[in-house]
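The protein record filed below.
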Amino acid sequence: MTGGSPVRVLVVDDSATMRAMVSHALSRDPDIAIVGTADGPNAAREMIKALDPDVLTLDIEMPDRNGLDFLDKIMRLRPMPVVMLSTLTGRGADASIRALELGAFDCYEKPRQLHDGAFGEGLARLVKAAARSRVRPRAIAPKPATGDFVPRADAMIAIGSSTGGVEALIELLSGFPANCPPTVIVQHMPESYVPTFAARLDRLSAPQVSVARTGAPLQAGHVYVAPGGSHHTEITGNALRRCRLVADDKMSGHRPSVDRLFLSVARWAGASAVGAILTGMGADGAEGLKSMKDNGAMTIGQDEDSCVVYGMPAAARQIGAVTVQLPLSRIAARLLAGCRA
Protein backbone atom coordinates (compact mmCIF):
# COMPACT_ATOMS: atom_id res chain seq x y z
CA MET A 1 0.00 0.00 0.00
CA THR A 2 1.47 3.36 -0.98
CA GLY A 3 0.21 6.82 -0.04
CA GLY A 4 -3.56 7.06 -0.39
CA SER A 5 -3.93 4.00 -2.61
CA PRO A 6 -6.42 1.38 -1.42
CA VAL A 7 -5.19 -1.89 0.07
CA ARG A 8 -5.26 -4.49 -2.72
CA VAL A 9 -6.66 -7.79 -1.40
CA LEU A 10 -6.81 -11.29 -2.84
CA VAL A 11 -9.46 -13.53 -1.23
CA VAL A 12 -8.71 -17.28 -1.13
CA ASP A 13 -11.39 -19.74 0.00
CA ASP A 14 -12.71 -23.02 -1.36
CA SER A 15 -16.30 -21.92 -0.65
CA ALA A 16 -17.89 -19.69 -3.27
CA THR A 17 -20.30 -18.38 -0.64
CA MET A 18 -17.48 -17.41 1.72
CA ARG A 19 -15.49 -15.78 -1.11
CA ALA A 20 -18.54 -13.66 -1.92
CA MET A 21 -19.16 -12.78 1.75
CA VAL A 22 -15.56 -11.75 2.41
CA SER A 23 -15.30 -9.80 -0.83
CA HIS A 24 -18.57 -7.97 -0.18
CA ALA A 25 -17.64 -7.20 3.44
CA LEU A 26 -14.22 -5.78 2.53
CA SER A 27 -15.33 -3.90 -0.57
CA ARG A 28 -17.64 -1.78 1.59
CA ASP A 29 -14.52 -0.06 2.93
CA PRO A 30 -13.34 2.64 0.46
CA ASP A 31 -9.72 2.04 1.50
CA ILE A 32 -9.81 -1.58 0.31
CA ALA A 33 -9.96 -2.96 -3.24
CA ILE A 34 -10.63 -6.63 -3.99
CA VAL A 35 -8.29 -7.47 -6.88
CA GLY A 36 -9.34 -11.10 -7.20
CA THR A 37 -10.70 -14.27 -5.63
CA ALA A 38 -9.35 -17.81 -5.80
CA ASP A 39 -10.87 -21.16 -4.88
CA GLY A 40 -7.61 -22.76 -3.76
CA PRO A 41 -3.81 -22.62 -3.68
CA ASN A 42 -3.25 -23.42 -7.37
CA ALA A 43 -5.36 -20.52 -8.61
CA ALA A 44 -4.10 -18.25 -5.83
CA ARG A 45 -0.47 -18.91 -6.71
CA GLU A 46 -0.94 -17.68 -10.26
CA MET A 47 -3.03 -14.69 -9.16
CA ILE A 48 -0.40 -13.60 -6.63
CA LYS A 49 2.18 -13.54 -9.43
CA ALA A 50 -0.12 -11.66 -11.81
CA LEU A 51 -1.81 -9.23 -9.39
CA ASP A 52 0.82 -8.64 -6.67
CA PRO A 53 -1.77 -8.03 -3.89
CA ASP A 54 -0.90 -6.17 -0.69
CA VAL A 55 -2.75 -8.63 1.57
CA LEU A 56 -4.09 -12.16 1.25
CA THR A 57 -7.10 -13.48 3.16
CA LEU A 58 -6.84 -17.25 3.38
CA ASP A 59 -9.22 -19.94 4.58
CA ILE A 60 -7.41 -21.92 7.25
CA GLU A 61 -9.57 -25.02 6.93
CA MET A 62 -9.55 -25.91 3.26
CA PRO A 63 -9.50 -29.66 2.54
CA ASP A 64 -6.35 -31.60 3.48
CA ARG A 65 -4.98 -28.65 5.48
CA ASN A 66 -4.13 -26.91 2.21
CA GLY A 67 -4.57 -23.54 3.87
CA LEU A 68 -1.66 -24.16 6.24
CA ASP A 69 0.46 -25.86 3.59
CA PHE A 70 -0.07 -22.93 1.25
CA LEU A 71 0.69 -20.41 4.00
CA ASP A 72 3.94 -22.24 4.76
CA LYS A 73 4.99 -22.00 1.12
CA ILE A 74 4.01 -18.34 0.88
CA MET A 75 6.01 -17.33 3.94
CA ARG A 76 9.07 -19.22 2.70
CA LEU A 77 8.99 -18.27 -0.98
CA ARG A 78 7.13 -14.94 -1.15
CA PRO A 79 6.52 -13.50 2.33
CA MET A 80 3.48 -11.19 2.45
CA PRO A 81 0.80 -10.15 4.97
CA VAL A 82 -1.76 -12.94 5.32
CA VAL A 83 -4.96 -12.80 7.38
CA MET A 84 -6.32 -16.28 8.12
CA LEU A 85 -10.05 -16.93 8.47
CA SER A 86 -10.84 -19.60 11.05
CA THR A 87 -13.39 -20.90 13.54
CA LEU A 88 -13.16 -20.64 17.33
CA THR A 89 -13.21 -24.41 17.78
CA GLY A 90 -10.66 -26.82 19.19
CA ARG A 91 -9.62 -27.87 15.69
CA GLY A 92 -9.67 -24.25 14.55
CA ALA A 93 -7.51 -23.20 17.51
CA ASP A 94 -4.82 -25.75 16.71
CA ALA A 95 -4.71 -24.67 13.07
CA SER A 96 -4.77 -20.97 14.00
CA ILE A 97 -1.83 -21.24 16.39
CA ARG A 98 0.12 -23.10 13.72
CA ALA A 99 -0.77 -20.38 11.19
CA LEU A 100 0.46 -17.63 13.50
CA GLU A 101 3.65 -19.59 14.13
CA LEU A 102 4.19 -19.83 10.37
CA GLY A 103 3.97 -16.04 10.09
CA ALA A 104 0.32 -15.16 9.42
CA PHE A 105 -0.42 -11.59 10.46
CA ASP A 106 -3.47 -12.66 12.47
CA CYS A 107 -6.49 -14.96 12.48
CA TYR A 108 -10.07 -13.74 12.29
CA GLU A 109 -13.27 -15.61 13.07
CA LYS A 110 -15.49 -16.50 10.15
CA PRO A 111 -18.96 -14.90 10.15
CA ARG A 112 -21.71 -16.96 11.75
CA GLN A 113 -24.47 -15.50 9.60
CA LEU A 114 -24.84 -14.22 6.05
CA HIS A 115 -25.08 -10.50 6.87
CA ASP A 116 -22.72 -9.70 9.73
CA GLY A 117 -21.73 -6.02 9.79
CA ALA A 118 -19.35 -6.46 12.71
CA PHE A 119 -17.47 -9.15 10.77
CA GLY A 120 -16.84 -6.82 7.84
CA GLU A 121 -15.76 -3.85 9.95
CA GLY A 122 -13.41 -5.90 12.09
CA LEU A 123 -11.88 -7.74 9.14
CA ALA A 124 -11.36 -4.47 7.25
CA ARG A 125 -9.48 -2.97 10.21
CA LEU A 126 -7.30 -6.07 10.41
CA VAL A 127 -6.58 -6.12 6.67
CA LYS A 128 -5.52 -2.46 6.71
CA ALA A 129 -3.29 -3.07 9.72
CA ALA A 130 -1.77 -6.08 7.95
CA ALA A 131 -0.95 -3.90 4.93
CA ARG A 132 1.03 -1.57 7.21
CA SER A 133 2.85 -4.40 9.01
CA ARG A 134 6.36 -5.72 8.63
CA VAL A 135 6.69 -9.24 7.28
CA ARG A 136 9.58 -10.84 9.17
CA PRO A 137 11.73 -13.63 7.70
CA ARG A 138 11.65 -16.95 9.50
CA ALA A 139 13.59 -16.66 12.74
CA ILE A 140 16.46 -18.93 13.68
CA ALA A 141 15.74 -20.04 17.24
CA PRO A 142 18.37 -18.84 19.73
CA LYS A 143 20.26 -21.38 21.75
CA PRO A 144 18.81 -21.83 25.26
CA ALA A 145 20.82 -20.33 28.11
CA THR A 146 23.39 -22.74 29.49
CA GLY A 147 22.70 -24.88 32.54
CA ASP A 148 24.85 -22.70 34.80
CA PHE A 149 22.21 -19.95 34.82
CA VAL A 150 21.28 -19.17 38.43
CA PRO A 151 18.37 -16.75 38.92
CA ARG A 152 17.87 -14.63 42.04
CA ALA A 153 15.39 -16.22 44.40
CA ASP A 154 13.02 -13.25 44.15
CA ALA A 155 13.35 -12.62 40.40
CA MET A 156 10.43 -12.86 38.00
CA ILE A 157 9.63 -11.90 34.40
CA ALA A 158 6.44 -10.35 32.99
CA ILE A 159 5.77 -10.18 29.23
CA GLY A 160 3.00 -8.61 27.17
CA SER A 161 2.34 -9.07 23.45
CA SER A 162 -0.39 -8.97 20.81
CA THR A 163 -0.33 -9.10 16.99
CA GLY A 164 2.78 -11.02 15.95
CA GLY A 165 3.23 -12.24 19.50
CA VAL A 166 2.76 -15.96 18.89
CA GLU A 167 5.81 -16.17 16.64
CA ALA A 168 7.74 -13.74 18.87
CA LEU A 169 7.04 -15.68 22.08
CA ILE A 170 8.03 -18.99 20.50
CA GLU A 171 11.35 -17.44 19.48
CA LEU A 172 11.88 -15.69 22.81
CA LEU A 173 11.10 -18.68 25.05
CA SER A 174 13.34 -20.93 22.98
CA GLY A 175 16.20 -18.99 24.58
CA PHE A 176 15.04 -19.67 28.15
CA PRO A 177 16.72 -22.38 30.26
CA ALA A 178 14.73 -25.06 32.08
CA ASN A 179 15.28 -23.22 35.38
CA CYS A 180 14.22 -19.78 34.13
CA PRO A 181 12.72 -17.30 36.61
CA PRO A 182 8.93 -17.61 36.97
CA THR A 183 7.43 -15.88 33.94
CA VAL A 184 3.90 -14.60 33.40
CA ILE A 185 2.65 -13.75 29.90
CA VAL A 186 -0.38 -11.89 28.57
CA GLN A 187 -0.85 -12.53 24.84
CA HIS A 188 -3.98 -11.08 23.24
CA MET A 189 -5.85 -13.99 21.66
CA PRO A 190 -9.26 -15.67 21.86
CA GLU A 191 -9.74 -17.65 25.07
CA SER A 192 -10.29 -20.88 23.14
CA TYR A 193 -6.81 -20.59 21.59
CA VAL A 194 -4.88 -20.26 24.87
CA PRO A 195 -4.67 -23.95 25.95
CA THR A 196 -3.42 -24.92 22.48
CA PHE A 197 -0.90 -22.08 22.49
CA ALA A 198 0.38 -22.92 25.98
CA ALA A 199 0.75 -26.58 25.00
CA ARG A 200 2.64 -25.55 21.86
CA LEU A 201 5.02 -23.36 23.88
CA ASP A 202 5.49 -26.20 26.36
CA ARG A 203 6.59 -28.59 23.60
CA LEU A 204 8.98 -26.06 22.06
CA SER A 205 10.53 -24.61 25.24
CA ALA A 206 12.78 -25.95 27.99
CA PRO A 207 10.65 -24.51 30.87
CA GLN A 208 7.22 -25.91 31.72
CA VAL A 209 4.47 -23.76 30.16
CA SER A 210 0.87 -23.85 31.37
CA VAL A 211 -2.29 -21.76 31.47
CA ALA A 212 -2.34 -19.55 34.56
CA ARG A 213 -4.86 -20.43 37.26
CA THR A 214 -5.85 -18.71 40.49
CA GLY A 215 -3.58 -19.66 43.38
CA ALA A 216 -0.81 -21.19 41.25
CA PRO A 217 2.51 -20.41 42.99
CA LEU A 218 5.12 -18.69 40.82
CA GLN A 219 7.94 -21.21 40.56
CA ALA A 220 11.30 -21.20 38.79
CA GLY A 221 11.23 -23.16 35.57
CA HIS A 222 7.56 -22.34 34.95
CA VAL A 223 5.88 -20.03 32.45
CA TYR A 224 2.22 -19.02 32.97
CA VAL A 225 0.04 -17.83 30.07
CA ALA A 226 -3.02 -15.70 30.90
CA PRO A 227 -6.24 -17.53 29.98
CA GLY A 228 -8.22 -14.44 29.01
CA GLY A 229 -11.93 -14.55 28.39
CA SER A 230 -13.76 -13.00 31.34
CA HIS A 231 -10.66 -12.66 33.55
CA HIS A 232 -7.51 -10.61 33.92
CA THR A 233 -4.33 -12.27 35.16
CA GLU A 234 -2.41 -10.65 38.01
CA ILE A 235 0.19 -11.67 40.55
CA THR A 236 -0.15 -11.23 44.30
CA GLY A 237 1.82 -12.02 47.45
CA ASN A 238 5.12 -11.04 49.06
CA ALA A 239 7.00 -14.09 50.41
CA LEU A 240 5.21 -16.43 48.02
CA ARG A 241 3.88 -14.89 44.84
CA ARG A 242 0.89 -16.48 43.15
CA CYS A 243 -1.20 -16.02 40.04
CA ARG A 244 -4.64 -14.52 40.51
CA LEU A 245 -7.47 -14.41 37.98
CA VAL A 246 -9.81 -11.47 38.39
CA ALA A 247 -13.22 -11.14 36.73
CA ASP A 248 -13.46 -7.46 35.82
CA ASP A 249 -14.16 -5.03 33.00
CA LYS A 250 -11.71 -4.63 30.14
CA MET A 251 -8.67 -2.46 30.78
CA SER A 252 -6.93 -0.56 27.97
CA GLY A 253 -9.48 -2.19 25.66
CA HIS A 254 -8.50 -5.75 26.53
CA ARG A 255 -9.20 -8.67 28.84
CA PRO A 256 -6.71 -10.01 29.72
CA SER A 257 -4.87 -6.71 29.80
CA VAL A 258 -1.09 -6.37 29.75
CA ASP A 259 -1.50 -3.20 31.83
CA ARG A 260 -3.38 -5.15 34.49
CA LEU A 261 -0.58 -7.72 34.77
CA PHE A 262 2.22 -5.15 34.76
CA LEU A 263 0.54 -2.98 37.42
CA SER A 264 0.27 -5.99 39.74
CA VAL A 265 3.92 -6.87 39.10
CA ALA A 266 4.95 -3.29 39.91
CA ARG A 267 3.05 -3.53 43.21
CA TRP A 268 4.13 -6.98 44.38
CA ALA A 269 7.54 -7.52 42.76
CA GLY A 270 8.98 -4.03 42.33
CA ALA A 271 12.69 -3.95 41.49
CA SER A 272 12.98 -7.75 41.57
CA ALA A 273 10.98 -8.03 38.34
CA VAL A 274 11.96 -7.58 34.71
CA GLY A 275 9.35 -6.67 32.09
CA ALA A 276 9.16 -6.82 28.30
CA ILE A 277 6.59 -5.46 25.88
CA LEU A 278 6.57 -7.07 22.46
CA THR A 279 4.94 -6.59 19.06
CA GLY A 280 1.28 -5.63 18.97
CA MET A 281 -1.32 -3.08 17.93
CA GLY A 282 -2.51 -0.38 20.33
CA ALA A 283 -1.09 0.81 23.63
CA ASP A 284 -2.01 -1.88 26.16
CA GLY A 285 0.90 -2.39 28.56
CA ALA A 286 2.50 1.05 28.23
CA GLU A 287 1.19 2.50 31.50
CA GLY A 288 1.78 -0.74 33.38
CA LEU A 289 5.37 -0.98 32.12
CA LYS A 290 5.93 2.63 33.21
CA SER A 291 4.72 1.67 36.69
CA MET A 292 7.13 -1.27 36.75
CA LYS A 293 10.02 1.01 35.75
CA ASP A 294 9.03 3.63 38.33
CA ASN A 295 9.12 0.90 40.97
CA GLY A 296 12.67 -0.12 40.08
CA ALA A 297 12.17 -2.83 37.47
CA MET A 298 14.31 -3.10 34.36
CA THR A 299 12.02 -2.82 31.31
CA ILE A 300 12.55 -3.85 27.69
CA GLY A 301 10.74 -2.83 24.52
CA GLN A 302 10.99 -4.73 21.25
CA ASP A 303 12.49 -2.55 18.52
CA GLU A 304 10.60 -1.45 15.43
CA ASP A 305 12.57 -3.47 12.89
CA SER A 306 11.82 -6.81 14.57
CA CYS A 307 8.14 -6.08 15.33
CA VAL A 308 5.31 -7.21 13.11
CA VAL A 309 3.42 -4.17 14.46
CA TYR A 310 5.35 -1.49 16.32
CA GLY A 311 2.38 -0.27 18.34
CA MET A 312 2.57 -1.40 21.97
CA PRO A 313 6.37 -1.01 22.25
CA ALA A 314 6.18 2.41 20.58
CA ALA A 315 3.48 3.59 23.00
CA ALA A 316 5.56 2.41 25.95
CA ARG A 317 8.68 4.10 24.67
CA GLN A 318 6.85 7.37 24.05
CA ILE A 319 5.89 7.71 27.72
CA GLY A 320 9.33 6.75 29.04
CA ALA A 321 8.39 3.24 30.14
CA VAL A 322 11.25 1.46 28.34
CA THR A 323 14.70 1.15 29.93
CA VAL A 324 16.24 -0.40 26.81
CA GLN A 325 14.94 -1.18 23.33
CA LEU A 326 16.24 -4.35 21.66
CA PRO A 327 15.63 -6.60 18.64
CA LEU A 328 13.64 -9.71 19.48
CA SER A 329 16.70 -11.95 19.07
CA ARG A 330 18.41 -10.24 22.05
CA ILE A 331 15.50 -9.90 24.45
CA ALA A 332 15.64 -13.37 26.06
CA ALA A 333 19.28 -12.96 27.03
CA ARG A 334 18.64 -9.48 28.44
CA LEU A 335 15.64 -10.65 30.47
CA LEU A 336 17.71 -13.45 31.98
CA ALA A 337 20.65 -11.12 32.66
CA GLY A 338 18.31 -8.91 34.68
CA CYS A 339 17.36 -11.90 36.84
CA ARG A 340 20.79 -13.40 37.58
CA ALA A 341 21.83 -14.00 41.17
Summary: The longest strand covers residues 32-38. The chain has eleven helices and 14 strands.
